[in-house]
Amino acid sequence: GNERVGPTVVMEAALLLLEAATCESLLHVSSTTSSSYLSTAAVNETKARQTASTTCQDTLLAESGIGDVQRRWLARLVSTRRIVIVPTANALGYSRNSRTEDGIDPNRDFPYDLPMTFLCMRTIAGRTLNEIFRE
């Protein structure tokens, strides 16, 4: 709840995933026609996408150290999975700079190993995470 580094790391990881997926998407131009039959506009667009892709790849490598193999792997993660990003699971605790939410630790607010199940899901964070994982 009161950790300050976690949300920043999560958002930076999300940005990296999106940048890698964007670079890869620029490489793939859907065309059913051979290049000899493409219009001048289509050829220019293809060249612009290739230039943008190269620039994107160079930037990822220079700024993040992400090469071809890693970029393809990250892009595959994005395209083959449902990714739910929760930068701050305990937003109330984050804003109050406290691990607990009204005296209850959201990390312990689940029905695991509780003698009375009505004692769980009493925090907003616990209920929110429960709904995310139920979908």
What would you say this structure looks like, in words?
There is one protein chain. This protein is mostly helical. Helices cover 58% and strands 0% of the residues. It contains five helices and no strands. The protein has helices at 5-27, 40-64, 68-80, 91-96, 124-134. The longest helix is centred in the middle third of the chain and has 25 residues, at 40-64. The radius of gyration is 22 Å and the shape is elongated. 13% of the residues are buried.
Could you provide a short overview of the structure?
The protein contains 5 helices and no strands. The protein has 135 residues and is an all-alpha fold.
What is this structure's SSE topology?
Blueprint: H1 5-27, H2 40-64, H3 68-80, H4 91-96, H5 124-134
Largest sheet: none
Helices and strands, in order, run as: HHHHH
How many angstroms separate the termini? 24 Å
Low-confidence segments, given as residue ranges, are none
Rg, Å, rounded: 22 Å
The outline comes out as elongated
Helix content: 55-70%
Task: Quickly count the helices.
Answer: 5
Structural class: mainly alpha
Query: How many DSSP-defined strands?
Result: 0
Note the beta-strand portion: under 5%
pLDDT averaged over residues? 85
